[in-house]
Specification:
Layout lengths: L2 H18 L1 H20 L8 H26 L7 H19 L5 H28 L4 H20 L4 E2 L3 H8 L1 E2 L2 E2 H19 L1 H11 L1 H6 L4 H27 L1 E2 L5 H13 L11 H20 L6 H27 L2
Antiparallel strand pairs: 1-4, 2-3
Helix pairs in contact: 1-14, 2-13, 3-8, 3-9, 3-11, 3-12, 3-13, 4-5, 4-6, 4-11, 4-12, 5-6, 5-11, 7-11, 8-9, 12-13, 12-14, 13-14
C-alpha cells in the first residue's frame, strides 16, 4: 500500500466520521458557545446548574415524545404530519375523561384518562396507516389530512376551549420527579430506549430500514408491508399521544393545540439526528441528539435575552444545514474513496 493510498483511506475515514457525527459536534459546539457567552457576559455558568440541566432535559423530552415514533416512520421512507394535533387530541381526551370520572377518584380517573387518550391517538395512527398502506395515499398528503381532522376533533370535543382539571395525580405525571429526575424525562428516556431497541435489535427494525431503502426487495422477501406500515403509523401516533398526556399533567389542562408548536421541532430533531429524506437512514440516538440541540438553542436564546421568536429562525437554519448534509453525504463519501 502506497503512502498516497493510505492517506486517502485515512481522509475517507475522517470524512465519514465528521459527516455521520456532525450533530454530536454541533451539540458540543453550541454548549461551548453558550457557556463561553455566559462566562463573559454575566460571569455565571450556562449549563453547570441543576435548573439549567432540568429545563433543557424537559424541553428535549417534549420534542422527543413526538419525534420518537416519527423517526421510525421517516426511516421507512414516509412522514407523519398529524402528530402535532394527535398530541392535542390525546391531551383533550385525557382531561375530559378525568372530568367525567371525577378528580376525586384519584388514580382511577387518571388511568382511565390515559387509556382513552392513548386509544384516541391509536385511532389516528390506524387511519394514517390505512390511508398510506391500503389506499396508497402519499404519506405527506394523507397525514396532512388527518392533521386537520385531529385538530377539528380535538376542538369539537373540547368545545373550542382549554379543558382544565384539578388532579394532583395527573399533575405528578407532568411535574413530579423521581430521585431528582423529572417524570417527563424518565418517560421519554424509557420510550427512547424501547424504540432504539426495536429499531436496532429486532426484525421489525431491520424491515423498517429495508422498507425505506428498497420497498420492492422487502415485498419480494415476503414481508407484509401493508401491516408493517400500519404498525409504524400507530407507533408514531402513540408516542405523540404520550406527549399529550404529559402536557395535560404538566399544565393541568388539555388543549387542542398542545403539540402544534412542537411539530416543527420534532421533524427537525429527526433530520438533525441523521435521518434521510428518502428513508433507509436514521437512528433514535440521533433523534435524541437532535432534540437536545433544539432544546439547548431554545434555552440558550432565552438565557441570552433574545425574544422567543428567534428560536424559529435558529431552528429553521439548523434544519437547512441538516438537509444540506443529507443531500451531500453520499456524494462526499463517494469522492472520499472506499
Amino acid at each position: 500500500m502506497t503512502d498516497t493510498t493510505a492517506k486517502n483511506k485515512t481522509g475517507a475515514l475522517i470524512l465519514r466520521s465528521l459527516l455521520n457525527g456532525w450533530s454530536w459536534l454541533f451539540l458540543i459546539g453550541i454548549l461551548v458557545f453558550f457557556e463561553a457567552y455566559a462566562r463573559i457576559q454575566t460571569g455565571d455558568t450556562f449549563l453547570l446548574r441543576l435548573y439549567s440541566i432540568q429545563s433543557i432535559a424537559i424541553a428535549a423530552s417534549q420534542i422527543l415524545l413526538l419525534a420518537l415514533g416519527l423517526t421510525l416512520v421517516i426511516v421507512a421512507g414516509h412522514i407523519d404530519l398529524s402528530i402535532g394535533f394527535t398530541t392535542g387530541l390525546s391531551a383533550v381526551v385525557m382531561a375530559l375523561i378525568i372530568r367525567l370520572i371525577g378528580a376525586d377518584a384519584g388514580w382511577f380517573a387518571v388511568i382511565g384518562g390515559i387509556a382513552v387518550g392513548l386509544f384516541a391517538a391509536m385511532v389516528v395512527g390506524l387511519v394514517n396507516g390505512w390511508l398510506v398502506a391500503i389506499l396508497n395515499v402519499p404519506s405527506f398528503i394523507g397525514t396532512l389530512g388527518t392533521y386537520g381532522i385531529a385538530r377539528g376533533m380535538a376542538l369539537i370535543v373540547a368545545g373550542g376551549a382549554t379543558v382544565s382539571i384539578r388532579s394532583e395525580e395527573a399533575r405528578s405525571i407532568g411535574n413530579g420527579d423521581i430521585l431528582g429526575v423529572p417524570v417527563p424525562v424518565l418517560i421519554a428516556g424509557l420510550l427512547a430506549l424501547a424504540c432504539h431497541y426495536v429499531l436496532q435489535h429486532t426484525k421489525f427494525g431491520v424491515h423498517t430500514y429495508a422498507l425505506g431503502a428498497n420497498r420492492a426487495s422487502v415485498e419480494r422477501a415476503g414481508v407484509d408491508v401493508k401491516r408493517h406500515l400500519i404498525q409504524l403509523f400507530v407507533i408514531s401516533a402513540l408516542t405523540a399521544g404520550v406527549g399529550g398526556l404529559i402536557y395535560t399533567g404538566r399544565f393541568s389542562a388539555g388543549a387542542a393545540n398542545a403539540g402544534e408548536p412542537i411539530l416543527l421541532y420534532a421533524v427537525a430533531a429527526v433530520f438533525i439526528g441523521g435521518a434521510s429524506l428518502t428513508g433507509g437512514q436514521g437512528t433514535v440516538i440521533g433523534t435524541v441528539i437532535g432534540a437536545f440541540i433544539i432544546a439547548v438553542i431554545q434555552f440558550g436564546l432565552v438565557f441570552s435575552g433574545l425574544p422567543p421568536y428567534w428560536q424559529f429562525v435558529a431552528v429553521g437554519l439548523v434544519i437547512i444545514v441538516a438537509v444540506l448534509v443529507d443531500q451531500s453525504r453520499d456524494r462526499l463519501l463517494q469522492g472520499a474513496g472506499p
